[in-house]
Every structure is written in structure tokens, then in C-alpha cells.
Write a structure and sequence with these properties.
heterotrimer, A alpha+beta, B mainly alpha, C mainly alpha, B: mainly alpha, Four Helix Bundle (Hemerythrin (Met), subunit A), 6 helices, elongated, C: mainly alpha, Cytochrome C Oxidase, Chain A, 17 helices, 66% helix, globular
């Protein structure tokens, strides 16, 4: 019964080790602080207990002490701040060539779609030793994607994408929890992250003839009529989308924004929000006509439209990258 | 003799207007004034939350808010602003009157303030009714098909319409802000009604008119809130 | 004129026997009676909230969700939070001990606005009634945090009645704060300068600033949520162009300073107790006063540390993390100063002092774990887990409730004219301390291991820590019930209390136990500094206690 009494989850990602190191540092400093204060309190309680004939000595205070025990703890806290900020910065900056998985959270399940087309519910298969980036949105309320073994968490919001990335280091099966209260079955919105050896992962991927997400997106792009205006030559009524993703875009009102996932999503659902310079605001909205999954496919497709001279495709998984012929 | 600050520090037993727990009338008056200022501070924070929401969405949905704002009647808004400013003037005239000991003049000015306040509310009701008719009241029957500011000058094919969701956001905040403001005005009018009655009964003298002063402070605050509302709700993007 | 050292409350007029009958209580404007009205009301809500807590802990004994249904559990933790925060912790010390003591401590006859004080209580009762209605009518399950769009679009429970109840409680809180600020500014007795104010008063002054500036923001935010539900507005609904993060910012803008509303009065209590039972002036009076003001001000600048993973920008997160470390500094100063006050003191260990020791220790742990949460990289892992629950229970229960109990014991003789039984007091304090730590310490571990908040079913490996926690909760419950029982017992059978049983400094001890309706026989004039224990202890305890003239 007492054989295995863990105090923290498994260390299964590059991030986990960093967070654990910080945790131990915080524990040590806090422990020392606590022991110090408890010891001094106990010592004073005993040493200065009321004794016959002895009076308390009135001490007004000490500016020096006040300053000392303000500045020193604050400096220690700055170390906490900086260390934590560095880890946070790393956690929130996904590497460039990460494998992407689109996530749609809904009450009360997790729907995953890999770029290669595999769909999963509540179970996420990922390869060990590779950067994986989750691009997540919610269909209804706010959820939160939490994998204790990776020490990573991100709220999943309706109406926009949030991202999270990790680099798994140990094959195994790890808890996935929803950690933002989301209604009746919040406790039941749990699942597993299955980290696999590369060979096992390849095997798993090739089972099931799913079509890659970007190809689904390409089909939608055609079916919904996007291709009519967003032509690959310059005469289209809409901007040419080849090579747009990830680059800055100059807008009519003078602002410059980066064409990230949220920008593409917004452009489909609320085209009037940001008009590209030199174009008229004539794009209709597709709000209500596309589901979150279809939006993911379209985003994946636009991403796949890398500029031709980049040599190899932006995504390393055998994606069709050439611009559609007019 | 300067009667503008006629505060006489009488010991408790000599002045019936003094409440039991205060040592002097000066202390009582200072406490009441500070109390009203503190109350107004929290009112600023109360409206502040809504102003914050408004500013966030105005920035986010710039054009759509401009469009929705143009659906408000700037004439009625301006008239209402003038009415409220006049009502603040009538309060001040009332305070001046009682400082000079003129009881009935005070009653008159208080009633004048109430009349102006009710006029404001009446005009507001008219504006609300118009919004209701045009289906600009947020909710199930909301419907909006208006141009963005400045679009009238363009050829028909190129005009752009405001996003109805964002226009609805403007109107949600419009009704929340002006509704909360109107509620405060109703309280104010009621308060002045009560004070007018007490004034008529002779409760206030040149020595003691603290409740009138504090009610006046409250009323001025409501006025200032309106001035900000008028600017933010009625006057944006009018130049286009 | 001297105060006779032995109470003669049997014959003498005091606030308790001046006027009998329900009407004399329900229409009172005496701040002391209003304080007792509040005492009864918040104790009632404390036990309701506590009952919900026990049900939660019972469910969590087993990994499966087998005691209550999922929806019921969601209602339990929601209402536990709402009742405890809005109907116990926020009003708690200010409405009971603050109301009772502040006028007396500053030498006044009453608060500045006695009728508004009574109005405050009635608003609280209206709010509380709406809360009871909410509970009885099927409950509410939004979480005490009301996050949108869940609370606006997806739940069918009694959200609006809960909101209106909380709104009334908030308005009650605002009026209490307003009353205290004006009272402290305008009603101090001759000679009671700002530098001579007891730290209890300073703490309530700082608390009142937060009450009046913060509460209105959550009030209007909840109003907007209610309007959104009623009229299907889209202010916080992404499907209609709204922003759920706007709700979170507005909500936390109050709800973070709210935790300082909860803790600062407790810190004020601890200062009074530590000084009295060490027989010493506080170490660093000015620093302590500035610290409470500093906590109040900086506390308004840190709210988004509740939102590090909510989707705010990295840069916003950096700023709020840094500011959160700033607010830790004045809190740390207070812990050091209390400890330093005991240096070369003459310490005795009556029940109030035991609670003060408990507070200092547990607040230290709670505060230090706050540093973990302010740390960005750490917070990502432990946010929305039991680590957070453990942290805030350490400061709110290990801090605030323990301080409250200490204050109730310390001033019970003054309030009731009776002594509580000291032996039982010490026993209850020990039981509370043990029960509390057993309940909440395991939750730090649970949190780091990854157990999320608001889960009624959990993986089996979390069970043993949950069992420990529930065991602690039952012990804690006993610790809370004991004072209820012996305080009530003491009102009939307790030893009559003298004016100053602790030989403490402070104007409240210079008047009778219980005090007369207008607090003092004669207007006090203050000619001595706060915590003048050197003067007090020079007088042998058999002589009369000096009263200013």
C-alpha cells in the first residue's frame, strides 16, 4: 500500500524537468523561510515567556531592519520571477517546425485532428522526441488542456485559437485533464496522451486511410467558392494566399498584423474586421456555414500554401504544396 | 458677515438638528460631506466597469460603433445635455437660496430640478421608444442593416455595412450605460422630492442645509456621468 | 472617574440590557447591537458553507463520483465558494468586530452613520435571503467565479438570483466601508491622532478603501452577466462578438483585492493580540500601518495573475507576475514585525495568543505558496489544481478564520461581559490547528500531482491524499463547533468579565464589559501613545485603570 507514494507526476517532457527544478528551488527557499520563522517564533515564545519580576522591553522598531528584510526577500523573489518568466516564455513560444495537431474542445470531450488526417477523441497519440504544437479552440465554453506529466496547460477558448506545445521525452500513457470548469461533466472530460516510439507512431499513423487535413481544406476551399476570389494569379478580387501564412500583412487602416491561425480564422468568419490594403471589403462571411473542424482544415490548407521558392514544403509530412491551378 | 459657510459649532444640547453621536455640528457636517464624496468615489468605479467594457469594444469594433452611434439622435442628446446642466444650475441656485434663508425659493428650485430631471427622463424614454421601433434593442428582435460611417459618399456597389453583432454590442452597452444612468436619475429625482417636502416643512435653515448640499453633489455627479456618456455614445465618428 | 475593576453589569446599564424585545434589536442604530446581528447572520452562513464543504469532502473520499451526481457536486462547490466568500469572509471581521470596536477604539459614541450601518445589515440579510432561496430552489453551478460564456449561455440554474443576492451583499460591504472611512477620519476623540490609532483601526481603514473602490466593479460586472442572461446580449459571448476574457478581467479586478478585504482585518486583530500577550508595543508601528495601506494599493494592480493561462499576452503576464511579487513584500514585513514584537517581550499563552501564533505560521505558509503561484512557469502547471485550493485555504482559513476566532476570544469579555472557559478555548484552538493542517496540506501535493479543481471523480492514485484531507475536515469541524457551544454557554454561565481582563492597551478596555450604549461614561481624551504597555505594566494590577479626562 505504501510502496508507491508519488509527490509529483512523471517527468515526461523537456518542460517537466525545468518546472520541477524551479519547484524544488521554490520549495527549498520556502522551506528555509518557514523553518526560520517557526524556529524564531518558538524560540521567542519559550525564551521570552512571562517570568516573575521581568518586564517586557519596549522597542520602537528599526528602520535598518525593515529595509533589510524588505530588500533581501524581494531580491530572492526577483529570482523566482525571472526563472519563472524564462520557463513561461519558452512554454509559450512554440518551435518553428513543430508537428501540429488541431484540437476542438467541446462539452465534454476532446477532439483531435492530426495534420495527416487521423481523428481521435479523448486520446492523443504523439511521437516521442518531437516538438508537438496543439492549435486549440472550443465549440462552446472555456475549457483547458492540461497534461500534468508535461507540466503544461492552456485554456481553450471559444471564438479563437490558443496554442500549446510540448516535447515528449518518455514513451508512455499520461493523464489529460480539462482544467477549466465547464459544466456537468467537467470531471469526465479526461483522456490520455499516448507517447509512442517513432516506429510505433509511424505504424499507427498509416493505419486508416484518412486524408491529410490540408487536403480536406483544399477541397473545402474549392467547394465553398474561396478559390473564385483568392486566385493564385494577381487578378483575383481577394488577396493571393500563397506564402501569406506567418508573414506580416498590411491592412487598409495602416496597421500591420501577422497572418497567424487566428487571423485566418477571423478572415473567414468576420472578413470585415481586417481589410488587406488595396482590396475592397467584399468578402462574405462564412459564420454559421463552417464548423470548427472545417475551419481547422481551411487553416491547415492556407498554412500549406508556402511560397514556391522555399524549396521544401513548410510541413514535413508529404503535403501537397503547389498552388492550385487557375 | 459671510453666510456662505454658515457652520456654527454648537454643543449637542443646544441644537436639535445635531445627531446624538456627533460632538459638534461642524463634525456632523464634515462627516456627511465626506460620506457623500466617498459614495461618489464608489459610483465612479461602478460606472467605470461599463465604461471599460465600452472602450474595449469601441477600439475593437471601431467602424461598427461609429455606425451604431449615428443611429442615435444627436438633437435629443444635446437637448438632454442642456437640460441636465440646467438642472445642476437649479440645484446650486437652491443652495444659494437657503444660504440666504429663503425657504420657499429653495423649494422652488428643488422642484425646478425635479422638473428638469423628469424632462430628461421623458426625452430618454422617447429615444428608447424610437430604438424599440427600429429594432435596435438588443435581444431576440434585434435587426440592423446600416452603413459604416462615411460610406454614403461611395457608389452603391462599394458601400460597406456594419456588422450587426457589433452594432448590437454598441446598443447593449448603450442601454446598460444610459439605463443605469437613468436609474440614478430616478433616485435623484425621488431624493429631491423628499428634500423639497422637508424644505417646505422648514427643516433647512441658513445654518443647516447639509442634505441639500450632499444631494446636490450626487446630482452633479450624475450630470458629469451624462456628459461622458453623451460624448462617447452620441458624438463618435460624426465627422465622417 | 475610574472604572470599577469588577464588572457590575447586573445593575449597570449596558448596550445589551438597554431596551428589550425584538424591535429594539431589529431597529437598533447602536453599532454594538448591529455587530451582534451580523455575528448571528454570518455564523449562520458559515455553517451553511461549512456543510457544503463537508459534503464535498465526503464525496472526495472515493475516486468515483458516487455520493452525489455531477450537477449536484458542481452546485456544492459553487455555493460553498459563494456563501463563504460573500456571506462570511468579506463581511466577517469588519461587520462583527470592526463594527463593534472601531468607534470604541477611537473614543467615539458610534459610527458616523448609524442608520446606514443598520441599512448595511438589512441589505446583507436581503442578499442572504436571496442566497438561501437560490440554494433551496435548486442551487447554482457556475462556480463562484461565474466565468462566461458558461454562466451566461450554458447553464439553466438560478444564476440571476445568486447574482442579485451577491449584489446586495456587495452593496452592504460598500456601505460598511464608507461608514468606517468617514468614522475614522471624522470621529476620533480629542488626542487620538492618526499615529495613535490601534493597528486594528488602520487595517480596517485600508480594508474599507478596497471595499469602496473594488466592490462596485464586480457589482456592475455581475449585473452585465445577469442582463446578458435575460436579454441574450453578447457582451461576454464570443458567438456575438463578445470577449470572455473581458469578463475575467473585470471579475478579478475586484476579486483579487477582495482577498485583501478578507485578510487585512485579520492582520489587524493579530497586531492587537500579539502586543497584548507580549506586553509590548508593536515593533515598527509606522511600517505596519504603511504595510496595510501598501497591500491595499498594490493589491489593485495584480488581478491578472489569475489569468496566466487564460489567453492573455506574454507581456501582460510578465507585468502581473512582477507586480504580484511587489505585493508580497508588505505582507512579509508584517510577519517579521509580529515576530520581532515578541523579542524581549513577556509572553503568556491564553487562547487568543494561541490563535495569533497559528495565524502567523499558517499565513506564512499560505503567503509563501502564493509566491509559487505568482511565478509564471510554476503557475502554468498548478493553476486550476488543488495547489491553488490549498494556497487560498491556508490564507483564508489558516489566516483569516483563525484570526477571527482569536479576535472573538480576545474581545468576547468586552462584547458579552463574560469570560469564555480558557481550557476549552485552548483545546479548540489545538483541534482547529491540527484539523486545518491535515485538511489542506495534502492538497498542495495533490495539486502538484495534477489533480484539477472542481472534480468530483478523480484517478485512483489521488485517493490517499483525499482521504487524509477529509479526515482533517471532520476534525476541523469539531474545532469550529466547540467555540459555538462554549461561547453560548458562557453567556449564561461564564465568569463575569472585568473591564480589562487582559490588562490590554486600547480605549475599548477603558470602558465597562459590556460597554454602555454610548460606549463611555465620559468623552475620553487621549494623552498616551498606542500600545503603552510600559505605562500599563508599571501600575500594579490591583489599582484602578486610568481613564483619560
Amino acid at each position: 500500500m505504501f510502496g508507491h507514494f508519488p509527490l509529483w507526476p512523471e517527468n515526461a517532457s523537456t518542460n517537466a524537468g525545468n518546472v520541477d527544478a524551479l519547484y524544488i528551488f521554490l520549495l527549498m527557499v520556502s522551506g528555509i523561510m518557514t523553518v526560520l520563522i517557526f524556529t524564531v517564533l518558538t524560540a521567542f515564545a519559550v525564551r521570552y515567556r512571562k517570568r516573575k519580576g521581568q518586564r517586557a522591553e519596549q522597542i520602537e522598531g528599526s528602520h535598518q531592519l525593515e529595509i533589510t528584510w524588505s530588500i533581501i526577500p524581494f531580491c530572492v523573489m526577483l529570482v523566482f520571477f525571472i526563472w519563472g518568466a524564462v520557463i513561461y516564455f519558452q512554454e509559450r513560444t512554440p518551435p518553428q517546425d513543430a508537428t501540429e495537431v488541431y484540437t476542438v474542445a467541446k462539452q465534454w470531450m476532446w477532439k483531435f485532428e492530426h495534420r495527416e488526417g487521423q481523428r481521435e477523441i479523448n486520446e492523443l497519440h504523439v511521437p516521442v522526441g518531437r516538438d508537438v504544437k496543439m492549435i486549440m479552440t472550443s465549440q462552446d465554453v472555456i475549457h483547458s488542456f492540461f497534461v500534468p506529466a508535461f507540466r503544461i496547460k492552456q485554456d481553450v477558448l471559444p471564438g479563437r485559437y490558443t496554442t500549446l506545445w510540448f516535447h515528449a521525452t518518455k514513451p508512455g500513457t499520461y493523464h489529460l485533464f480539462c482544467s477549466q470548469y465547464c459544466g456537468t461533466q467537467h470531471s469526465g472530460m479526461v483522456g490520455w496522451v499516448v507517447v509512442m516510439e517513432p516506429r510505433d507512431y509511424e505504424a499507427w499513423m498509416s493505419g486508416g486511410g484518412n486524408q491529410p487535413l490540408a487536403v480536406t481544406g483544399q477541397k473545402l476551399f474549392s467547394e465553398l467558392g474561396c478559390v473564385t476570389c483568392h486566385r493564385s494569379d494577381i487578378q483575383g478580387r481577394g488577396p493571393n494566399l500563397v506564402g501569406v501564412f506567418g508573414k506580416p500583412v498590411l491592412l487598409e487602416d495602416g496597421r500591420t498584423v501577422t497572418a497567424d491561425e487566428n487571423y485566418v480564422r477571423e478572415s473567414i468568419l468576420e472578413p470585415g474586421a481586417k481589410i488587406v490594403k488595396g482590396f475592397k471589403p467584399v468578402m462574405p462571411t462564412f459564420q454559421g456555414q463552417v464548423s470548427d473542424e472545417q475551419l481547422n482544415a481551411l487553416v491547415a490548407y492556407v498554412k500549406s500554401l508556402a511560397a514556391p521558392q522555399s524549396g521544401r514544403p513548410a510541413n514535413a509530412n508529404g503535403m501537397a504544396v503547389a498552388a492550385p491551378k487557375p | 458677515m459671510d453666510t456662505s459657510r454658515a457652520v456654527v459649532d454648537e454643543p449637542a444640547h443646544e441644537s436639535p438638528a445635531l445627531l446624538h453621536h456627533f460632538a459638534t455640528k461642524g463634525q456632523q457636517k464634515n462627516a456627511a460631506s465626506l460620506g457623500m464624496w466617498v459614495f461618489l468615489a464608489q459610483e465612479v468605479m461602478f460606472f467605470g466597469g461599463m465604461f471599460c467594457a465600452y472602450l474595449v469594444y469601441r477600439y475593437k469594433y471601431f467602424g461598427d460603433f461609429g455606425s451604431a452611434s449615428q443611429q442615435l439622435s444627436i438633437t435629443l442628446g444635446t437637448i438632454n445635455t442642456a437640460v441636465l446642466i440646467c438642472s445642476s444650475l437649479t440645484v446650486v441656485l437652491g443652495i444659494r437660496a437657503i444660504q440666504l434663508g429663503k425657504r420657499m425659493a429653495l423649494v422652488f428650485w428643488l422642484i425646478a430640478t425635479m422638473v428638469l430631471g423628469l424632462a430628461f427622463l421623458g426625452i430618454k424614454a422617447d429615444e428608447y421608444a424610437e430604438k424599440f421601433e427600429r429594432h435596435h434593442v438588443p435581444g431576440a428582435s434585434f435587426s440592423y442593416h446600416e452603413l459604416l460611417p462615411g460610406q454614403m459618399k461611395l457608389p452603391a456597389a462599394e458601400r460597406q455595412y456594419a456588422n450587426p453583432h457589433h452594432a448590437e454590442m454598441f446598443f447593449s452597452l448603450y442601454f446598460a450605460l444610459t439605463g443605469m444612468h437613468a436609474l440614478h436619475m430616478v433616485v435623484g429625482v425621488g431624493l429631491f422630492g423628499f428634500l423639497a417636502y422637508m424644505a417646505w416643512r422648514g427643516k433647512y435653515t441658513a445654518d443647516y442645509y447639509t442634505p441639500i448640499e450632499n444631494a446636490g453633489l450626487y446630482w452633479h455627479f450624475v450630470d458629469v456621468v451624462w456628459i461622458y456618456l453623451f460624448g462617447l455614445l452620441y458624438l463618435i465618428d460624426r465627422h465622417r | 472617574m475610574a472604572i470599577a475593576d469588577v464588572s457590575d453589569s447586573g445593575e449597570r446599564e449596558n448596550y445589551l440590557n438597554a431596551g428589550h424585545g425584538l424591535k429594539s434589536w431589529l431597529l437598533t442604530v447602536d453599532h454594538k447591537r448591529i455587530a451582534l446581528l451580523y455575528l448571528i447572520s454570518i455564523t449562520f452562513f458559515f455553517f451553511i458553507g461549512g456543510l457544503f464543504a463537508l459534503l464535498i469532502r465526503l464525496e472526495l473520499l472515493t475516486p468515483a463520483g458516487d455520493l452525489v451526481q455531477a450537477d449536484t457536486y458542481n452546485k456544492l462547490f459553487t455555493m460553498h465558494g459563494q456563501v463563504m466568500v460573500f456571506f462570511f469572509l468579506i463581511p466577517g471581521v469588519p461587520a462583527v468586530l470592526g463594527n463593534f470596536l472601531i468607534p470604541i477604539m477611537i473614543g467615539a459614541k458610534d459610527l458616523a452613520f448609524p442608520r446606514i450601518n443598520l441599512l448595511s445589515w438589512y441589505l446583507f440579510i436581503i442578499g442572504g435571503t436571496l442566497m438561501i432561496y437560490t440554494i433551496l430552489n435548486g442551487g447554482v453551478d457556475t462556480g463562484w467565479t461565474f466565468y462566461t460564456p458558461l454562466s451566461t449561455e450554458f447553464l439553466k440554474t438560478n444564476v440571476i438570483s445568486a447574482i442579485v443576492g451577491i449584489f446586495f451583499a456587495g452593496f452592504s460591504s460598500i456601505l460598511t466601508g464608507l461608514n468606517f472611512i468617514v468614522t475614522i477620519h471624522r470621529m476620533r476623540a480629542p488626542g487620538m491622532t492618526w499615529n495613535r490609532l490601534p493597528l486594528f483601526v488602520w487595517a480596517h481603514y485600508a480594508t474599507s478603501i478596497i471595499q469602496i473602490l473594488g466592490t462596485p466593479v464586480v457589482a456592475i460586472t455581475l449585473v452585465l452577466v445577469a442582463l446578458e442572461r435575460l436579454f441574450h446580449l453578447g457582451i461576454f459571448n464570443p458567438a456575438l462578438g463578445g470577449d470572455p476574457l473581458l469578463f475575467q478581467h473585470l471579475f478579478w479586478f475586484y476579486s483579487h483585492p477582495a482577498v485583501y478585504i478578507m485578510i487585512l482585518p485579520g492582520m489587524g486583530i493579530v497586531s492587537e493580540i500579539v502586543c497584548c500577550f507580549s506586553r509590548k508595543r508593536i515593533f515598527g508601528y509606522r511600517a505596519m500601518a504603511l504595510a496595510v495601506l501598501g497591500i491595499a494599493v498594490i493589491g489593485f494592480l495584480v488581478w491578472a495573475h489569475h489569468m496566466f493561462v487564460a489567453g492573455i499576452s506574454i507581456y501582460a503576464a510578465l507585468i502581473f507576475s512582477l507586480l504580484s511579487y511587489f505585493v508580497a513584500v508588505p505582507s512579509a514585513i508584517k510577519v517579521f514585525n509580529w515576530t520581532a514584537t515578541m523579542y524581549k517581550g513577556s509572553i503568556t499563552y491564553q487562547t487568543p495568543m494561541l490563535y495569533a501564533f497559528g495565524f502567523i505560521g499558517l499565513f506564512t505558509i499560505g503567503g509563501l505558496t502564493g509566491l509559487f503561484l505568482a511565478c509564471l512557469g510554476m503557475d502554468v502547471h498548478v493553476h486550476d489544481t488543488y495547489f491553488v485550493i490549498a494556497h487560498f485555504h491556508y490564507v483564508m482559513v489558516g489566516g483569516m478564520v483563525i484570526a477571527y476566532l482569536g479576535g472573538m476570544h480576545f474581545w468576547w469579555p468586552k462584547i458579552s461581559g463574560r469570560m469564555y472557559p480558557e481550557g476549552w478555548g485552548k483545546l479548540a484552538a489545538l483541534i482547529v490547528f491540527i484539523g486545518f493542517n491535515l485538511t489542506f496540506f495534502p492538497q498542495f501535493i495533490l495539486g502538484y500531482m495534477g489533480m484539477p479543481r472542481r472534480y468530483y471523480a478523480y484517478p485512483a492514485e489521488f485517493q490517499i491524499l483525499n482521504v487524509l484531507s477529509t479526515a482533517g475536515a471532520t476534525i476541523l469541524a469539531v474545532g469550529y463547533l466547540l467555540p459555538m457551544v462554549y461561547f453560548l454557554w458562557s453567556m449564561r454561565y461564564g465568569k463575569p468579565a472585568p473591564a480589562n481582563p487582559w490588562n490590554a492597551a486600547g480605549l475599548e478596555w477603558q470602558t465597562h464589559s459590556p460597554p454602555p450604549t454610548f460606549n463611555f461614561d465620559e468623552q475620553p481624551v487621549v494623552t498616551w501613545e498606542a500600545y503603552n504597555y510600559d505605562q500599563i505594566d508599571e501600575i500594579p494590577e490591583t489599582e484602578e485603570v486610568r481613564v483619560g479626562h
